[in-house]
């Protein structure tokens, strides 16, 4: 997403110096903690997602209001803010709720690390959507990586050895792939629906919409517990603060100022971190073939996203 010249020239130097790649990296590391905290909470997919959103809103809404006041002090921003399309952010938020609920189900079924690897197939889906909607170019190397990635998904999902140790590797793989489509849609709608300079505002709006869609889906699937234990609430509050507030705001701010290929590559830190944390914290050790599949998936999407398309001049961001 382009950063308008008026905003770039009027903003303080300190703000211009923030590298969007650094924001995306830190945000990705925060998100990598999410499946660990979800597993520790021991709650159903709908319960985890609904409370993740609701507990984040008291933090996100003030952040959004502070951001709005700050942007109003910058010359020409009121017009820019009006150019945002909140309804697209709401659509993205509804998809985010589906993504997080399905992903939570995948965490329970196939493990924190493998589910996060599989859901990051969005790294392939997002550039395809960007090509269809925004006309961003797709390289041949990207297309060649897709069948390799699909093979890795099959291995990571336990096709070779049945995913020994996982509760339901096939179901977990299906849920993670469905979540990946919803995740890619969220990132795209957030990108094209947010006004230049906005970070917290769109994430707060999307989180509110996600609470609605996750409650609906969660109520139909395993139910939503409105009175979880205090221990579960503690883990979910930590999830809301780190995974929702810090993670998504940083990712939204970084991704909005980066070409899709660069942002998608940085997001690969999520599955790598989740696999390592899953083994260290939860003692969830994937089988050898699942680990091979994870490596294949991560390698394929990294190859697909690397130099997938050169950023257009309006997307270029000064370091």
TrEMBL record:
Q: Where is the EamA domain?
A: 22-156, 171-304
Q: How does it sit in the membrane?
A: Multi-pass membrane protein
- What are the protein's UniProt keywords? Membrane, Transmembrane, Transmembrane helix
Q: Tell me, what's a Pfam family for it?
A: EamA
* Major subcellular site: membrane
Transmembrane ranges? 22-42, 48-66, 87-106, 112-133, 140-159, 171-190, 202-221, 233-251, 263-282, 288-305
- Domain of life according to the entry: Bacteria
- Which chain positions lie within coiled-coil regions? none
UniProt subcellular location: Membrane
Q: Which family does it belong to?
A: Belongs to the EamA transporter family.
Q: What is this protein called?
A: DMT family transporter
**What organism is listed for this UniProt entry?**
Actinomycetospora termitidis
**Lineage from the top down?**
Bacteria, Bacillati, Actinomycetota, Actinomycetes, Pseudonocardiales
């Amino acid at each position: 997403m382009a950063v308008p010249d008026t905003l770039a020239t009027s903003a303080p130097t300190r703000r211009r110096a923030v590298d969007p790649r650094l924001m995306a990296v830190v945000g990705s590391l925060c998100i990598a903690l999410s499946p660990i905290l979800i597993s520790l909470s021991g709650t159903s997919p709908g319960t985890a997602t609904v409370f993740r959103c609701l507990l984040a809103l008291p933090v996100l809404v003030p952040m959004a209001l502070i951001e709005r006041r700050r942007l109003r002090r910058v010359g020409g921003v009121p017009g820019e803010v009006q150019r945002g399309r909140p309804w697209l952010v709401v659509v993205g938020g509804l998809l985010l709720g589906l993504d997080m609920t399905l992903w939570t189900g995948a965490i329970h079924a196939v493990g924190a690390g493998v589910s996060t690897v599989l859901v990051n197939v969005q790294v392939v889906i997002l550039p395809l959507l960007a090509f269809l909607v925004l006309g961003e170019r797709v390289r041949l190397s990207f297309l060649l990586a897709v069948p390799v990635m699909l093979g890795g998904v099959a291995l990571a999902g336990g096709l070779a050895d049945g995913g020994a140790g996982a509760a339901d590797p096939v179901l977990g793989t299906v849920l993670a792939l469905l979540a990946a489509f919803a995740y890619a849609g969220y990132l795209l709608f957030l990108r094209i629906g947010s006004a230049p300079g906005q970070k917290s505002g769109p994430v707060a709006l999307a989180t509110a919409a996600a609470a609605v869609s996750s409650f609906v889906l969660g109520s139909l699937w395993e139910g939503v517990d409105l009175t979880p234990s205090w221990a579960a609430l503690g883990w979910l509050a930590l999830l809301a603060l780190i995974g929702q507030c810090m993670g998504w705001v940083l990712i939204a701010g970084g991704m909005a100022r980066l070409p899709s290929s660069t942002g998608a590559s940085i997001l690969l830190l999520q599955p790598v971190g989740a696999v390592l944390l899953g083994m260290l914290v939860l003692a969830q050790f994937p089988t050898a073939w699942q680990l091979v599949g994870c490596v294949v998936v991560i390698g394929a999407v990294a190859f697909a996203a690397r130099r997938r398309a050169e950023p257009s001049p309006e997307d270029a961001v000064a370091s």
